[in-house]
Amino acid sequence: MDRVLRIGLLGCGTVGGGVVTLLSGEVDDITARTGARLEVVRIAVRDLDKASARGLPVSRDVFTTDPSAVVEDPDVDVVVEVMGGLDPAGGLIRRALELGKPVVTANKELVADAGPELYEAARAAGVDFAYEAAVAGAIPIIRPLKESLAGDRVTRVVGILNGTTNYILTKMSEEGADYAEVLADAQRLGYAEADPTADVGGHDAAAKCAILASLAFDTVVHASDVFREGIAAITATDLRVADRLGYVVKLVGIASEVDDRVGARVHPVFLPKEHPLASVRDAFNAVYVEAEAAGQLMFYGRGAGAMPTASAVVGDVIDVARNLLQTARGAAESVHRAKAIRPIEDLQTQYYVLLAVDDQAGVLADVARTFGDHGVSIAQVWQEGAGDSAQLVLITHRAREGDLQQTVGALAAMTNVRSVASVLRVESEVFAS
Ligand SMILES: NC(=O)C1=CN([C@@H]2O[C@H](COP(=O)(O)OP(=O)(O)OC[C@H]3O[C@@H](n4cnc5c(N)ncnc54)[C@H](O)[C@@H]3O)[C@@H](O)[C@H]2O)C=CC1
Ligand SMILES: N[C@@H](CC=O)C(=O)O
Ligand code: NA
């Protein structure tokens, strides 16, 4: 008879539902691969009636509204956390590890906040803590960074790390879709976080960027160390200008190490249409890794949605279950070394600046002088519209972010500049460090 390993799920929303579906649909294959039958025996949810009404292939008495009961249940061998948020998820995971139960999570917010403490708790308990689903959904990227590339020196990681925003930007630029309507679609399709401001504000991508930077550079980078801008301010004009100049607008996360300092940033960029990341559309994600010996690698796939995310979660469940059967642990995170965070002001890249201006003689000269006064050189400039809707579009040469920020401050204070409507970084084919 097959050995049975019993799974306790914390949360059964988009991802949890996918996990239950996957585990119950491929029983024979999963049993063969694991060496044990995996059975979901307890599931914590907020609303019992809502959970039962979903028609998932589990009996009603599996559900509870008490997540602690799942963790504490002696019948639960492996805990899968797919409820999200810092609390109570963090405390529940700590307790599960303390009880010697391996944990699988999809919670990037928590891993970016408390990852090192949780890895340490898992190490002390001699069990696994796995989080492949937390970054870029279905795409295997945690395991490649932690294991496959352990012999190499990663220098840079660039990723489209949020499906919701990539979906929104794709629909806005290709179909002229309305921002609010596409965001509602992304929510309906199960891509968005419970609070979608985490997606559009760049917080979700910043958490993922922090996790990738920590793994790539053997250090601890928290989400708060990641410079962050979201996509809420992107306009149809920005998308049109980008297109005209041969770019697409993408929200990217970029982590790099230069001279023992780690830079980590998430913001929208103008990306050349021929860059491999430019063709990553809809809710797809991609992570582009540069390593000294391996050269360039690109990982591509679905970064959000029930089944793609469940694929990564169940892969981890099988991994930790195999280890549990052998009373072994999988690869641990490397020992962290303290590294300074590189301030965004030190970044050097090109910029696109859109200004609403008074349509009068001399304004262009005044604007150009302001750029020049701060050491920022202009590569291209033209006027769009006239009268009350006059706008100046400027593309700079490579400049220091600190100088650009000062330029923007000075522009905003000019009497003939009505507003600084947009400022976006322009990345050439080789990303700036
Ligand atoms: N939706 C997606 O495409 C992806 C989501 N994730 C992550 O997976 C996790 C879950 O996301 P979703 O399934 O989309 O969220 P969701 O909001 O659809 O589901 C959350 C579930 O947890 C339950 N829950 C939350 N707090 C609870 C509490 N205190 N007590 C009992 N039950 C509680 C809810 O009732 C619900 O069943 C999050 O950490 C998210 O960031 C990761 C990758 C992709
Ligand atoms: N809300 C996230 C889900 C996966 O992490 C996204 O849109 O990418
Ligand atoms: Na992943």
TrEMBL record:
Active-site residues from the entry: K208
Descriptive protein name: Homoserine dehydrogenase
Cofactor(s) in the UniProt record: a metal cation
Residues involved in NADPH binding: K108
Annotated keywords: Amino-acid biosynthesis, Methionine biosynthesis, NADP, Oxidoreductase, Sodium, Threonine biosynthesis
GO MF term set: homoserine dehydrogenase activity; NADP binding
Catalytic activity, reaction form: L-homoserine + NAD(+) = L-aspartate 4-semialdehyde + NADH + H(+); L-homoserine + NADP(+) = L-aspartate 4-semialdehyde + NADPH + H(+)
UniProt keyword annotation of S-adenosyl-L-methionine present: no
Example GO biological process: threonine biosynthetic process
EC number annotated for this UniProt entry: 1.1.1.3
Domain ACT span(s) in chain numbering: 352-428
PANTHER family assigned to the protein according to its UniProt record, in alphabetical order: HOMOSERINE DEHYDROGENASE
Residues that coordinate or bind L-homoserine: E193
Pathways involved: Amino-acid biosynthesis; L-methionine biosynthesis via de novo pathway; L-homoserine from L-aspartate: step 3/3; Amino-acid biosynthesis; L-threonine biosynthesis; L-threonine from L-aspartate: step 3/5
Role played: Catalyzes the conversion of L-aspartate-beta-semialdehyde (L-Asa) to L-homoserine (L-Hse), the third step in the biosynthesis of threonine and methionine from aspartate.
Binding positions (NADP(+)): L10, G11, C12, G13, T14, V15, G16, G17
Pfam families with a match to the protein in the record: ACT, Homoserine_dh, NAD_binding_3
Organism taxonomic ancestry: Bacteria, Bacillati, Actinomycetota, Nitriliruptoria, Egicoccales
